[in-house]
Design goal:
The complex is a heterodimer of chains A (114) and B (114).
Chain A lengths: L4 E3 L2 E4 L5 E6 L6 E7 L6 E7 L2 E5 L7 E4 L6 E5 L8 E8 L8 E2 L3 E5 L1
Parallel strand pairs in A: 2-11
Antiparallel strand pairs in A: 1-3, 3-8, 4-5, 4-9, 5-6, 7-8, 9-10, 9-11
Chain B lengths: L2 E3 L4 E5 L4 E3 L2 E3 L6 E7 L6 E7 L7 E2 L2 E6 L4 E6 L8 E8 L6 E3 L3 E6 L1
Parallel strand pairs in B: 2-12
Antiparallel strand pairs in B: 1-4, 3-9, 5-6, 5-10, 7-8, 8-9, 10-11, 10-12
Classes of the chains: A mainly beta (114), B mainly beta (114).
Chain lengths: 114, 114
C-alpha cells in the first residue's frame, strides 16, 4: 500500500446520470476526507469520516451527494442526477487519528459532466 | 466558521531567490494546526510543512520555513534558494483541534523562472 488510491481517475458522464467514485485510504488510517476542487481553486471540504462514522458534512453536500464508508476502510462518493456544475476534481485524503499528522491525498477523480 | 485567505493569486521569482507566500486565517479556537501543501501541475497534493498553534517556535523543513504570528493570525511560508521543482500551487490550510475538517485557502500559483 503506497498511498491513497482513487478510482476512476477520469469520468465523463451525461447530465442527469449518477456517478460513484471510490477511495481506498492508506490501510491504517482511520480518518478520511472528501474534497471538491475546481480549476485554479483550493479544495472545498465536502465530508469527513472517522472509521465508519460520517462526523462532518459541508452544506456544499446537497441532497444529490452521498458518501459512505461502510467498514471503515474504503469510501464511496455518489452524485445523483449530475449537473454541469458538478464538473470538478474530487479529492480524497486520509490520516491517522492524531491530529498533528498530515493528511495524505489521492490523485483525485476528474469528473466532466456534458 | 474558520476561513483561510491567501492574498497572492500568482507569483514569479528567479531560481535561487527567496520567496514568501502569505496566509491569514480566522478562528476562535485557541489550539489548532496549520499546514502548507504543494500541488504540482497535474500531480497530487503533498505536505510541505506543518505548525502546531501551541508551539511558539516556527517550523522549518530544509529550505522551507514559516513565520507564524498567532496574535495576528498570520502564517507565511518562506522558500529559500528556490528551485525549478518548486513550481506549483501552494495552499495554506487550517485544521481544528478535533481534526474533523481541514480548510484550505484559494492558493498561490508559484512560478520559478530559470
Amino acid at each position: 500500500d503506497t498511498g491513497v488510491s482513487q478510482d476512476p481517475r477520469h469520468k465523463i458522464t451525461k447530465r442527469g446520470q449518477n456517478v460513484t467514485f471510490r477511495c481506498d485510504p492508506i490501510s491504517e488510517h482511520n480518518r478520511l476526507y472528501w474534497y471538491r476542487q475546481t480549476l485554479g481553486q483550493g479544495p472545498e471540504f465536502l465530508t469527513y469520516f472517522q472509521n465508519e462514522a460520517q462526523l462532518e458534512k459541508s452544506r456544499l453536500l446537497s441532497d444529490r451527494f452521498s458518501a459512505e464508508r461502510p467498514k471503515g476502510s474504503f469510501s464511496t462518493l455518489e452524485i445523483q442526477r449530475t449537473e454541469q456544475g458538478d464538473s470538478a476534481m474530487y479529492l480524497c485524503a486520509s490520516s491517522l487519528t492524531e491530529v498533528n499528522t498530515e493528511a495524505f491525498f489521492g490523485q483525485g477523480t476528474r469528473l466532466t459532466v456534458v | 466558521a474558520q476561513t483561510v485567505t491567501q492574498s497572492q493569486p500568482e507569483m514569479s521569482v528567479q531560481e535561487a531567490e527567496t520567496v514568501t507566500l502569505s496566509c491569514t486565517y480566522d478562528t476562535s479556537e485557541s489550539n489548532y494546526y496549520l499546514f502548507w501543501y504543494k500541488q504540482p501541475p497535474s500531480r497530487q497534493m503533498i505536505l510541505v510543512i506543518r505548525q502546531e498553534a501551541y508551539k511558539q517556535q516556527n517550523a522549518t523543513e530544509n529550505r522551507f520555513s514559516v513565520n507564524f504570528q498567532k496574535a495576528a493570525k498570520s502564517f507565511s511560508l518562506k522558500i529559500s534558494d528556490s528551485q525549478l521543482g518548486d513550481t506549483a500551487m501552494y495552499f495554506c490550510a487550517f485544521m481544528n483541534p478535533r481534526g474533523d475538517k481541514i480548510i484550505f485557502g484559494k492558493g498561490t500559483r508559484l512560478h520559478i523562472l530559470p
